[in-house]
Amino acid sequence: MAVAKFVQGSILRHILVMSSTGAVGISALFIVDLLDVFYLSILGEQELAAAVGYAGAISYFTTSIGIGLSIALGALVSRSIGAKDTEKAKRLLLNSVVVTLLVSIVVSVSVCLFIPELLSIVGARGHTAELAASYLYILVPSLPLICLAMALGNALRAVGDAKLSMVSTLIGGGVNAVFDPILIFMFAMGIEGAAVASVMSRVAVFIVSARGVVVKHQLFGRFNKAHFIADLKPIFAIAGPAMLTSIATPIGNVVVTRAISDFGDSYVAGWAVLGRVIPVSFGMIFALSGAIGPIVGQNFGAQQYDRVKESLTRAIQFCCAYVVVVSLLMFLTRNQIVSVFDMKGDAAELILFFCTYIAIFFIFSGILYVANASFNNLGKAKYSTLFNVGKATVGTIPFVYFGGQWWGAYGVLVGQVLGSIIFGVLGVIVAYRLVEKVKEQQAAQPNSSTTSEAVIKVDKVTEFDEELTMSSQSPLSSSCTNMAMITEEQDCEASNKVAELIGFKGEKPPTK
Fold this sequence. Notes:
Its main location: membrane. By secondary structure, this protein is mainly α. The chain is built from 21 helices and no strands.
């Protein structure tokens, strides 16, 4: 049985260790994504960087659907493993994989049929739209591969093999890094070479993950139509809200990209560079959103509510300190960033503006990630969905629109920041109040022996069970970085522990 290591010792130390180790693997993938834009910028066409920005907005949306499906698989399989019901785990894994494959094929075909129209929606025009379309026509058909890879990666984490899951993503990143320059320069394929390298990366991740699930852990069972139909309800009970949560951020990203496109491709090229620089610069904050979840979850399961509250406080303090330091570094190196990517004119000015005035406000995005991770581990993942969808819509659309109307492309960034401030502050307030509410309800039931009795007052057990392991997503731009954000090394430990306390109370594994 997994050891609840976070219920004692320094919380700040747990946060630092979890975030730093998670950031190592995540940042490696962010850097690979950044290299895509760097290599294309060497070709001297800003339209290429702009095309990647437009294409990224659409591909980000498609892979987010896969993230929601993979969350469902991880949650269901981890609970069966926690209940020591291996046969049920095999059945749920196979049926979840089939659902993932079918949904991803439908999405892939649908997107391929309407790529020109979708690019028009995000603001791509002329030659830039043609470049973006050539990229997507190669990348989008491989969507089933990356969706299956993410699902199988979550299955590996569900059985405690988080290391192999991370290794699979690192191998995929390595394949991308190696073949990017070869295809872009040696074979003179340009943006199409970058797309082919990404497809090869997806194939590599899928092969490693599939081998781990099928060969190493032998988790694949036999398909049974009756079982498949019966499992559709629990799968979509988790996958539905998870997909809604996951696609909220790419919708917001599409809104911002569309607003910036009104001012020209040069600004979009600058935005595409920022979309790759931000994850590299703030990779520790993205790792923090994955690190804080298990810490909150274990202390919540142990009914140590003061430590839950302290976990929130320490995570927010760490987030603020880190963003201040990184923002200062971005300000000091702003001209070098522009020079490295050979950005000129409006693209360069947009990058300089971000590094000078906007980067510091990433604090509010970071604290919202912390709040969402807390919601997910306190049985209130619906709050996470609400805040994610709210921030991507009412927290983005009006602010970005009026910001663009009043101050141009710079106003779009300012508007996005204003929405982040509002939802970040509200998210933290609600998170603290939720902890106090659960603490008070537990205190009112002194004879309860597990947190499940307290949680029933907050939500029905079934709702809590369904929402337990959803992961909050961050606004990144590629399948590699999206996949990295669900590789939370210790997530399966916390979820299995709480699953035994709540999800399977009174259940026994079937006798053979």
